[in-house]
Structures are given as C-alpha cells and as structure tokens.
Design a protein that fits this description.
Number of helices: 15
Shape: globular
Mean pLDDT: 92
Helix content: 25-40%
Structural class: alpha/beta
Largest sheet: 8 strands, mixed
Strand order of the largest sheet: 4-3-2-5-1-6-7-8
C-alpha cells in the first residue's frame, strides 16, 4: 500500500470504535489544533434530507461573490477526498497523510472516532487553505455531532424525518430537538419546511437561546415547479418579488433546497450577497447521485436516497417526469437502516430487485421479503456485477432506478463508466 492507502486504512479502522456521542474528545482535539475554525466564518447545516445539496448551493453562492469557500460533506461517493473541498477542489492525498501523521498520537490518546478525526482534518485544511468561509454538514443529528463545536454565522436545518431512531429518538419532536442542538445563542437559524411538531420544538429552543429562526418557505415562496429530465423550472416569490429559476439539479426537492440556501445567504450578515448572483449560482449547481441519469436507452437513474422520505421524493419526481412508465428498482441498503417504512412507497406494478453492497453490511433478501411480502423480490448478487445484471433485465420501455445508498456509487459508476472528474 502507498502512504494514502495506509492512512485511509488507519482512518477507516477507527470506525470500529463506533459512534461516541459527545463533544468532549473533539473539543480537546480542537483545542490542541488551536481552534482552526476560528480562522474563517462558518455556516452549519443539519437535517434529515437535503443537507448535501444545500451545502453545495451555499458554496456556489458564496464562491460567485469571489469568496474562497471550503465545504465538508459526507459520505463520499468514490474517493475520501471528495468530503473536503476548497472552491470545488478536493483535499490532496498529501494533506490527508500529513495531518494523520502529525496527530496520530493524539488521535490514539483521545480515542477519537473516524468522523471526529475527519471533521478536524477538514477544519485544519480550511485554515491552511485560507478560506473565507466554510460550509459544514453534520454527520448525524446535530447536538452531539462532531461538527457542533463551531460558532456559525447562520445555522441551517433542511428537513426533519424519522432516521437513526435508535440514537436520535423515536418521534419527530425528539429528532427535531437533536437537530436544534446546532442553534447557538443569538445566531440566526434558517429551517426548511418541517412538520408542525418539529416547528414547535425549533421555536421553543430558539426562544430559550434568543435565536432568530426563519422558516425558508415563508420568506421564499415556491409558486410553480416543472420537473423535466433536463432541468427543473420554478417560479419563486422571494420577499414579494418573483424570480424564474432554471435549476440544473433535477427534482422538486432541488427547488426547496435552493430556497433554503437563498434564505440562509440572505439571513447571515457577515457577507454582502447579491440576490441576482446567488440565484444565478444555484441555477448552475449539479450534484452526482441526485436523480442522475446514467443511461437514456434503456432509461436508468441513480439516486443516493437512503431513507423513506428520500426514496418517496425520488419516486414522486420520476412519476412526474415519466407518467405511466413501468419502473424497475434495484435497491441496496445498509443493514442498519430501518426498511419497514418502505412498504407503501413503490408503485404497485414496479419490479423490485435487491443487491448487496461490497464491504457494507446490507439488508438481505429475507429482510426485504419480510417487508414487501407477498410481493416477489428478485436478488442479483453484489456490486457492479449485480448492477450489470439489472441493466440487462430492463425492457426498452422501462425506467430503471438504482437507489438506497451512497455506497452504491462505486459499482454504478464502474458499470456506466462515469467519472466524477469529468
């Protein structure tokens, strides 16, 4: 193995330490690095779905104003380096190796987890690269997430849904309380459309902290959405002025996330942002793995949706674009995910096939059958070979949909010869 492979092997081995909720260890690491996050402004983004897209919209908006922008997201699709970028450029192999070599003794002394180390790696890289602002995506929840050691210029919660209920709570108010843990005294927060029970939690927490909370859908009202395979057209009313947008991102959720980013950019007071520039920037954002068309004939899409809200939204968009078209689904999902909520999501005539994800504990055929019984479920094996087999089963009139995990990307992109560098 080369130096990067050795380093990544070590970092991934930290995953066996599991999740250790709490900020004490990462705060001690932050202190040892002399608070790298104090060298730039920070925008902090949490939420059940839409975090990655919102981070990318925000980064594009800020970069369009000549700012040097770092962003931190997870997980990656192909390479670890994708998680940490400055003006779109991934962190170098050398920077990853140097950081871990310098701080490995402390990583061991503090018994840090994989995500804690990568979070401070990102923060230190942004300082080394002299960014003006960093946009950070939470890994899990918010209150006890490793990213929650920052004091941002604005906090963002994109959405609330049932996820990781064994950790975050079994109800929407409990999960909302964890997400609201990123609120900071006096720092404005922007939220996406959330259920009333979650909104009440946000308002209560904001009141306790003296934190202004802005509901994006009340400031940026979506009046029209038209989803096509090429683009998403929308008319929004942003503080009583209409704007017509043509987003490169596909899907109704792309409009909602764009509005969240627009309102967050307006709500922060650290940078002076032009409305026309911000809209122009979000229109051009593209993000692999989000309603990404991999082939036209037969028609095949890949989407990283991995929970019921995400998959439901994916199906809704496909039905808008291809009404009445037969759908075949290839599903691969981490065994830790609760798949019982998927039972009612899929069209009655949809063919469902499952695969295993290489190197990831995946839901078995028996697990899927128990959820979808008495519906017939096919199984096609593992990884790229399974994707290739699924591709061969499609009829010319079908819409094939591969979904369930970010970790399917390597197999999908191998089969369809797609490179993130193109």
């Amino acid at each position: 193995m080369n130096a990067l492979q050795d380093t990544l092997h070590y970092l991934y081995s930290l995953q066996y330490r599991g999740m250790k909720l709490g900020l004490d260890r990462v705060e001690r690491f932050q202190e040892a690095l002399d608070y790298p996050d104090h060298a730039y402004a920070v925008i902090h983004v949490a939420g059940t779905n839409g975090k990655g897209s919102t981070v990318r919209y925000l980064a594009a908006m800020l970069q369009a104003h000549g700012l040097r922008v770092g962003w931190y997201t997870s997980p990656h699709l192909i390479r670890f380096n994708e998680r940490i970028r400055v003006n779109g450029v991934p962190i170098t192999d050398a920077a990853i190796v140097a950081f871990v070599e310098q701080w490995r003794h402390l990583i061991e002394d503090l018994d840090l987890t994989f995500f804690e180390v990568t979070t401070l790696l990102a923060m230190e890289h942004f300082r080394q690269e002299a960014v003006d602002v960093a946009v950070l995506e939470t890994g899990l929840g918010g209150r006890l997430d490793a990213t929650n050691i920052v004091t941002p210029i604005v906090s963002v919660v994109t959405s609330i849904g049932l996820e990781h209920t064994d950790i975050l709570g079994e109800t929407l108010p409990e999960i909302a309380a964890e997400k609201a843990g990123i609120f900071k005294p006096g720092i404005p927060c922007v939220t996406g459309a959330v259920p009333p029970a979650a909104r009440a939690v946000f308002q209560q927490r904001a009141g306790e902290l003296g934190t202004p909370v802005v509901a994006a859908e009340e400031v940026c009202r979506i009046r029209e959405v038209h989803v096509t395979p090429e683009k998403t057209e929308a008319v929004i009313h942003w503080e009583h002025r209409p704007y017509r947008m043509e987003l490169a991102m596909i899907g109704s959720q792309a409009v909602r996330n764009a509005c969240i980013a627009l309102v967050a950019g307006q709500t922060q007071r650290h940078f002076d942002l032009s409305r026309d520039k911000t809209i122009g920037a979000v229109e051009q954002v593209e993000l692999p793995g989000r309603l990404q068309q991999m082939k036209a004939k037969p028609l095949i899409y890949y989407d990283v949706a991995h929970n019921a809200d995400g998959v439901g939204n994916l199906i809704e968009n496909l039905e808008l674009m291809y009404p009445g078209r037969p759908m075949q689904f290839l599903l691969g999902m981490n065994a830790q995910k609760n798949i019982s909520a998927f039972q009612e999501l899929f069209p009655g005539n949809a063919v469902i096939t499952v695969l295993d994800i290489p190197d990831v504990p995946s839901h078995s055929l028996e697990s899927w059958q128990s959820v979808f019984s008495p519906r017939h479920i096919n199984h096609v094996g593992t990884g790229a070979a399974a994707v290739q087999q699924f591709r061969r089963t499609l009829n010319p009139s079908d819409c094939g949909v591969i979904t369930g995990s970010h970790y399917l990307a390597a197999s999908v992109y191998e089969v369809f010869d797609f490179s993130l560098d193109t």
